[in-house]
Amino acid sequence: MVIEKDMIIGEVLNMDRGVIPIFMQHGLHCLGCAMASGETIEEACAVHGLDCEMLIDELNEYFAKQETKD
Q: Would the pTM of this model clear 0.90, i.e. be above it?
């Protein structure tokens, strides 16, 4: 699984709820809000002034580790 900045936050959360702490650490605290179901990672980062590439890198590291566990 590769996470990209144009993916919807809600879709990523549905893939694995283990990513919640990663979003929270980057300042995206309202994961349950309506915007999470229609906003891309890139859009959320832009609105909140966050480093999108750093978030994407951490999400991809997380998913890579999950794949090696299987």
A: yes
